[in-house]
Design a protein that fits this description.
Chain lengths: ~130, ~240, ~100
């Protein structure tokens, strides 16, 4: 068992755990954390399998997957930032922290009147 | 208030099904990983053979900014798209960035000590990226962290830079990268195919602009609002209408 | 000591899996985020172990630092909005599993 192979299997385990958390927790922020864990697992698999090819004696893993993962880390953080901004906006607009289809007993309110009037006026004018 | 130990999100059957599904998925992934070839050349050889003419000494930087520069260009564009999405979401809430936080002299001293070091470190990482580990993303991340520290300790207040400056800093990476690519077309190649011998100059220019842009992007993403407009992010005006 | 480095690898790998398990089953979201920051640092260690040093630098700064700061700031703001709206009796973001 190679070191690189071991890390690749750890990456697969991370993906599985993240997947389970993504499906089974209603809290949206936990879903975002689970997505980040899965993303890190994917990156581990990418680099570890290419390092396994070259062997542990080689000084560096393959540079092309390294570049891909570097890009992936930055893209993942910007996607996380956007997801958190969406969560915050969702909370400001509706007062819920879970999606309505996930769990009805966490206190889904009806829409606040400001939001309802905003949705009425949103079609024609673009002064917003 | 419901105690979370008593609360189960889905029925027990669903939980077991999803857990079993996750196990099966992990098992399939592990089997796929184990059945990959355990020895092979990879793409190391191709990169090694062309490293001398790529303008840098580090293999990863050569791949990032020369061989696959188009992917890096699209990544910088993705950062800008994230900022645009953030503006489109129209966050709003009544509190400022640092609400009801007592003034902390510890944070201030920490910032005073650390931010100059971080700026120098970011410059070093940017320059050393051509031979040692480093590069535009690492430098931009450290610089962005310095900016976040300044924002948190209120050394940098919202409204102290103009809107044009803010947008300029955010778009600098994409603009310089795109202009460099178009310049390569003007010099007879395809998009982002550097002319002979000038690869290093192109790479340094693109990396510097990208690092600044990445830092500005991280600061704006953390703030969640426009840094130049003090009236940004207000949810309701007095009559309760959504603005 | 080079032949004993696999002990470090096993500890790090199992620590990653165990920490992911703890994040998934954390009591409240604040603990989960703090453990996620530690998780990012351990991932940076594994990148260093795989000799991918550029990714290690980027992951430590971006993956652990900026992402953790984003999560903490969002938790704080959602709490502040909840307090402002006077909805203290509803479950906050920490209590929802």
């Amino acid at each position: 068992m190679n070191t690189a192979l071991f890390y690749a299997l750890i990456g697969a385990g991370l993906i599985g755990m993240g997947l389970q958390s993504l499906v089974l927790t209603p809290n949206i922020m936990r879903k975002i954390i689970a997505l980040n864990i899965m993303g890190n697992g994917v990156f581990l698999i990418l680099v570890s399998t290419s390092k396994r090819l070259l062997g542990m004696a080689h000084p560096e893993p393959d540079p092309v997957p390294q570049a891909m993962v570097l890009t992936g880390v930055v893209v993942a953080v910007s996607a996380t930032a956007l997801a958190l901004a969406l969560l915050r906006r969702y909370y400001e607009a509706t007062g819920n922290l879970v999606l309505p289809e996930d769990s009805p007993e966490w206190g889904i309110e009806e829409m606040p009147p400001a939001m309802a009037s905003y949705l009425e006026n949103v079609d024609d004018d673009d002064e917003h | 208030m419901l105690d979370e130990r008593d609360y189960r999100f889905a029925s027990t059957g669903t939980r077991w099904l999803v857990t079993a599904g996750a196990f099966v998925f992990t098992g399939a992934l592990a089997w796929a990983i184990l059945s990959l070839p355990s020895e092979g050349p990879g793409l190391q050889g191709e990169v090694e053979s062309r490293l001398a003419e790529s303008g840098v000494d580090s293999r990863v930087t050569a791949v990032l900014l020369n061989f696959r520069a188009y992917d890096t260009f699209l990544e910088v564009v993705v950062l800008l798209v994230a900022i645009m999405g953030l503006r489109a979401i129209r966050l709003g809430s009544e509190e400022s960035l640092v609400k009801e936080t007592e003034f902390s002299p510890l944070l201030l001293e920490f910032v005073r000590f650390l931010v100059p070091i971080m700026i120098i470190l970011s410059g070093y990482l940017l320059w050393a990226g051509s031979k040692y580990p480093g590069g535009a993303f690492q430098a931009g991340a450290v610089l962005g962290a310095a900016g976040v520290l300044l924002l948190l300790s209120e050394r940098f207040r919202v409204g102290s830079i103009g809107p044009l400056m803010e947008r300029g800093l955010l778009a600098l990476g994409v603009v310089v990268f795109g202009l460099a690519g178009l310049l390569c077309i003007a010099w007879g190649g395809v998009f982002l195919e550097y002319p002979e011998g000038s690869a290093k100059a192109f790479i340094i220019a693109i990396e510097s602009a990208a690092a600044i842009s990445i830092a500005a992007t991280f600061v704006v993403l953390f703030a969640g609002r426009s840094l130049s407009d003090p009236n940004d992010a207000v949810l309701h005006d007095e009559s309760g209408r959504h603005r | 000591m080079a032949t004993m480095i696999w002990v470090f690898d096993i500890v790090l790998g199992l620590g990653l899996l165990g920490l992911a398990w703890a994040i998934v089953n954390a009591r409240n979201i604040y603990q989960a985020v703090v453990m996620f920051i530690v998780f990012g640092l351990l991932i940076a260690l594994s990148w260093a172990r795989l000799q991918a040093t550029d990714i290690a630098l980027a992951e430590a700064a971006i993956g652990a630092g900026i992402t953790g700061a984003l999560f903490l700031s969002t938790i704080g703001r959602i709490r502040a909005i909840q307090r402002d709206r006077g909805e203290d009796e509803k479950p906050g973001i920490e209590e929802i599993p």
